[in-house]
Specification:
By secondary structure, the chain is of the alpha/beta class. It has helices at about 45-55, 70-75, 95-105, 110-125, 140-150, 170-185, 200-205, 240-255, and strands spanning about 5-15, 20-30, 35-40, 60-65, 80-85, 160, 190-195, 205-210, 220-225. It has 2 domains: about 1-45 and about 55-80 and about 155-235, P-loop containing nucleotide triphosphate hydrolases (Rossmann fold); about 90-155, no CATH class. A 6-stranded mixed β-sheet has the order 5-6-7-3-8-9, with helices on both faces. A 3-stranded antiparallel β-sheet has the order 2-1-4.
Length: about 260
């Protein structure tokens, strides 16, 4: 079985003071090893909630989900994934190297192993030489790359990313999109990526999951026809534009169904 993440009939309802909120409804999805999967949909559609279910940070109220054949909780204990949040979340009193080392310290890696891994992931995200800098000395884009390095430090197979570039300007975002594709090609990680941007979803992904407004349902799953090598100007190609149209149609259909 090639499936890394498998959701079957997944439902999640939050109980609130104003009554139940149906965040996810009948979500069925297979993510295979090495896939780059983007989740796109309107605000509040359950994209982040689904990512948090994969990570074992939210508990489904119906259906099931497995990660590497385990429950999300077991996968979390086995350190099967790294998680990158919307904000870089770096500790200001720790250097960049110190921030990246933090999960390795908690896991009990030796000092030598910590140093080797920090050096390796800083190279991967193009931040070699910045180990002794503090977060405030880095731009927003560089801080987010440091956050990705921290998530890669313990070499989990899966990288979960919740709108990591959403707060950055378009030029920086384009550059980081290119770098992320190169990183993915080098590491062959399985990536789950939440975004609001249609061009970002189409540019990055092997598979695009289009979600409807709450309760979050999957309205379309698009297997990208684009080649693995993707220069930025591929966004002007007929294939790219066709996929973007299909994503837009899926988002529109989700609203109509509502």
């Amino acid at each position: 079985m090639n499936s890394t993440i498998s959701a079957i009939g997944l439902n999640l309802t939050f109980q609130t003071n104003d009554g139940p909120v149906h965040a996810l409804k009948d979500v069925n999805l297979e993510i295979n090893k090495g896939d780059f999967v983007s989740f796109i949909g309107p605000s509040g559609c359950g994209k982040t909630t689904f990512l948090r279910c994969i990570a074992g940070l939210e508990q489904p109220t119906g259906g099931g989900i497995t990660v590497n054949g385990m429950t999300p909780e077991e996968a979390r204990m086995a350190r099967a994934y790294g998680y990158v949040f919307q904000a870089a979340g770096l500790y200001p009193w720790r250097t960049i190297g110190g921030n990246i080392k933090l999960p390795l310290e908690i896991m009990g890696f030796s000092k030598a192993e910590q140093a080797e891994r920090v050096g390796r992931v800083l190279e991967l995200v193009d931040l070699a030489g910045f180990e002794k800098k503090f977060p405030w000395q880095l731009s927003g884009g560089m801080q987010q790359r440091a956050s990705i390095a921290r998530a890669l430090a313990f070499d989990a197979d899966i990288l979960l990313m919740d709108e990591p570039f959403g707060a950055l300007d378009e030029i920086v975002r384009d550059h980081l999109n290119e770098q992320l594709l190169q990183l993915w090609a080098r590491t062959e990680k399985t990536i789950g990526f939440v975004t609001h941007s249609i061009p970002e979803a189409v540019y990055l992904s092997t598979k695009i999951v289009v979600m409807s407004p709450r309760p979050g349902r999957i309205t379309d799953v698009i297997d990208s026809p684009l080649p693995k090598e993707r220069p930025l100007d591929i966004r002007d190609s007929a294939e790219f534009i066709a996929v973007a149209h299909r994503v837009r149609d899926g988002l529109r259909a989700g609203h109509v169904d509502d």
